[in-house]
Amino acid sequence: MKPTRKVFNWHKNLLALDRITPPWDKIKIIGREFITKNPIKNGIVTLEQTFLPLIKLKWKVLHGDYSEGKSFQDSLISGPLNKWTHKHDFKKLSSSSTTIEDTIQFDHWISLNRLNKFTLDRLHKSFDYRSKIIEHDLENLYDNINNNYILISGATGMIGGDLVPLLNSLGYKIIILKFDKNSKNDGYPKNYSSGNKDIITFRWNPYSQNTLIIPKEISNKIKFLVNLSGENILGVWTKSKKDLILKSRISSTRSLYQILKVNSIRLDCSIHASATGFYGSKKSNILDENNSSGLGFLAETTKEWEKEQNKFSKFANRNINLRIGTVLSSKGGLIKLLELPFRLGVAGHIGEGKNYMNWILLEDLIRIIANALQNKRLSGPVNAVSPNPIQSKEFFHALAKKYNSKFFIKIPSFIPKILSKELVDEIIISDQKIAPKQLLKNNYSFLADDINKALDNIISI
Predict the structure, then answer these.
(1) CA–CA separation, 170 vs 78, rounded Å?
(2) How far apart are alpha carbons 349 and 342 in whole angstroms?
(3) In the chain, is it the N or the C terminus that has fewer CB atoms within a 10 Å radius of its CB?
(4) pLDDT tens digits, the chain, 461 residues: what are they?
(5) Is 405 inside any structural domain?
(6) Looking at residue 30, which CATH number applies to its domain?
(7) Rounded distance, CA 425 to CA 417, Å?
(8) Which residues of 190-202 are buried (b: 16+ CB within 10 A; e: fewer)?
(9) Where are the beta strands (DSSP E) in 41-182?
């Protein structure tokens, strides 16, 4: 742990609550009301918690009883419980060590021992998660003495939605480029005031002929870029869908390039989302960043995409193509698609299940991005995958066990191929073994390199 002042100040970050909320709680912050810039000093947050697909509960919570550097308390204004208070006490152990003492009092509308035990069990798991997140972030703070900014596209997607709170908690100031198909790239950000905001949002249309002009006092401080833009590859691969997958990636990357050029921005590091689809399906080899591209729609798309990304070397000291595997998260992607049938007790896999999946826990992925921003030894292609690829049948069995599924079925691959043969061949039954050579060479320590540990960080029944 760090000195008490640093630990307490970490909780003042605008997105601290987003950052420490466990994935399995399925809580989204949908509203914030602040009297001062300090969100934990008499600030109010509105939360939405999802139970099963159709049940959403709202919580309204006040951050009050504030004592600078010592404590604050969360009190329920309205919500699904009769009572909820959460006191945070920050206690100095030494000049470089702090403990946080959390005192929670709650009452359900109906007093049942099993319900109280369930709540306490969830709280214990959640606070174990929170402490690990806080410890990680405090150990990896960015000393932003110059108030530098990071420019992010695709910030509202599955990856960006978790990355932005992490970067905020590490000390970066953030500029979000929010996609707006009606924007002419001439809008002044509503939440910008003399450059003193931690998070600024610009409306951005990558298909516009105009280039976004950023106020000079901000553009001079942009030192990092993360490009996460691109149409989701999941779905039926019609010709129009495939065109959009390619066009969205190329157009957004070219637009970002023009923003750097026109605004005379020089970066310390630029990171672009790419994909392990770059390699195609090569069953006999263990692939690393030195392997060439493969065959197929995804391989060709990724190859063209990286050509555009590599042009950023003109404006960045380091330019990274982050080749991302299957991202595991309860917030989207594969697990989100499978959650309902698996929860209902019906699990399965497509085909023989002998093909290898290259996966990455979402929390590891965003940590890799944060690490790459500062790790000057990382440049060029970087495989963002676990060092332990797994056969798809093993993955689906592990997921079924986690959800306590009762039935397991095997779906012949020809059935989904009726809808989209390319998608099935290149994603669902694609067979690759990919090594994160650059990450291992540079001593990145995975939070979850084992599939069961990864699922433990996503799901709680």
Answers:
(1) 31
(2) 11
(3) C
(4) 689 999 999 999 999 999 999 999 999 999 999 888 899 999 999 999 988 777 899 999 999 999 999 999 999 999 999 999 999 999 999 988 999 999 999 999 998 999 999 999 999 999 999 999 999 999 999 999 999 999 999 999 999 999 999 999 999 999 999 999 888 888 666 555 444 488 999 999 999 999 999 999 999 999 999 999 998 887 778 889 889 999 999 999 999 999 999 999 999 999 999 999 999 876 667 899 999 998 888 999 999 999 999 999 999 999 999 999 999 999 888 888 888 888 888 888 788 888 898 999 999 999 999 999 999 999 999 999 999 999 989 999 999 999 998 888 877 665 555 556 666 666 666 788 999 999 999 999 999 999 999 999 999 86
(5) no
(6) 3.30.530.20
(7) 8
(8) eebeeeebbbbbb
(9) 44-51, 55-67, 71-78, 83-94, 97-107, 149-153, 173-179
The single-letter code of the amino acid at 173 is K
CA 43 – CA 341 distance, rounded (Å) = 39
Determine contact, residues 405/347, Cβ cutoff 8 Å. yes
Tokens of 258: 């023009």
Q: Which of 310, 288, 315 is nearest to 224 (CA)?
A: 315
Cross-strand partners of 433 = 286
- Reading the block at residue 384, the tokens are 């963002």
Instruction: CATH number of the domain at 291, please.
Output: 3.40.50.720
User: Do both 258 and 215 map to the same domain?
Assistant: yes
